Amino acid sequence: MNLYEAIFVRKSIRKYSMDKIDQKVIDHIMNFADSIPMLFDDIKVKLELVQLADLKHFQPGILTVKAPYYLVLYSTKESGYLLNAGHLMEQIALYITARGLGTCYIGNLNLKNKVLEEEEYEQVIALAFGEGECEVYRQSDKAKRLPLKSIAVFKEEADKNVRSIVSAARLAPSGMNSQPWRMVVYNNRIHLFCKKNIFIRNVMKETGLLDMGICLAHILIGAEEMWLEAKPLYMNNISSQSFKKNDYIISVKMS
Ligand SMILES: Cc1cc2nc3c(=O)[nH]c(=O)nc-3n(C[C@H](O)[C@H](O)[C@H](O)COP(=O)(O)O)c2cc1C
């Protein structure tokens, strides 16, 4: 199974066997994670593998899933770091899924890693993973997602490949399944917007950008599967406009 195929079967797993995973598999995951390029060159990230067995006095909160392993992503805070973090972590989540293991994002894993904080890294997101206690795959039609017409506007008759890419983007996981992505789709480009949330603006803005990075990962993985060259671009002519319901995030040009 490749990353594109994993998009269509991934689901959040919240019950894990506490058995250790073969060290070779862990090494493959960490090597894969280290090989992923950043979306923006100036951002630095560190990934820490935490084993539940090594954590003393760790009490998972209500929203924290108990798992044998957590991959914690720390990042410096240059512009675009949340988008980058989501884009990076989702590729790792899909790689782990393709290996037959379960994953679940954890928004607030309270680890308090003092060393990294001193180096001005911020803990951004964590991914729980391990052997699932139940089936780790799901058919994509069972995923609770908004209908395509609520998240994408097709400005031109998009071909089969572009439609498949948008369908892959639709399946992205998001914090509280909020699915903030909105897409304006042309035949060779997708403009990505994040739905404004006027009620819980600050909290949602942060997770919203992480979610957008995850969605962007699905778009770029989809484009690669279709053998299309895809480049994320920040388009000043769009960002200079203001939109009532959405914030402009980034565009993907495909050729
Ligand atoms: C940024 C982010 C944070 C999340 N935080 C949590 C969390 O703290 N606890 C949890 O159980 N699920 C968490 N999730 C998982 C979402 O609830 C889940 O992805 C969403 O409901 C869609 O379900 P699915 O992953 O099964 O497709 C998070 C997901 C994302 C993307």
TrEMBL record:
<keyword id="KW-0560">Oxidoreductase</keyword>
<feature type="domain" description="Putative nitroreductase TM1586">
    <location>
        <begin position="2"/>
        <end position="223"/>
    </location>
</feature>
<dbReference type="InterPro" id="IPR000415">
    <property type="entry name" value="Nitroreductase-like"/>
</dbReference>
<keyword id="KW-0288">FMN</keyword>
<dbReference type="GO" id="GO:0016491">
    <property type="term" value="F:oxidoreductase activity"/>
</dbReference>
<dbReference type="InterPro" id="IPR029478">
    <property type="entry name" value="TM1586_NiRdase"/>
</dbReference>
<dbReference type="Pfam" id="PF14512">
    <property type="entry name" value="TM1586_NiRdase"/>
</dbReference>
<comment type="similarity">
    <text>Belongs to the nitroreductase family.</text>
</comment>
<protein>
    <submittedName>
        <fullName>Nitroreductase</fullName>
    </submittedName>
</protein>
<keyword id="KW-0285">Flavoprotein</keyword>
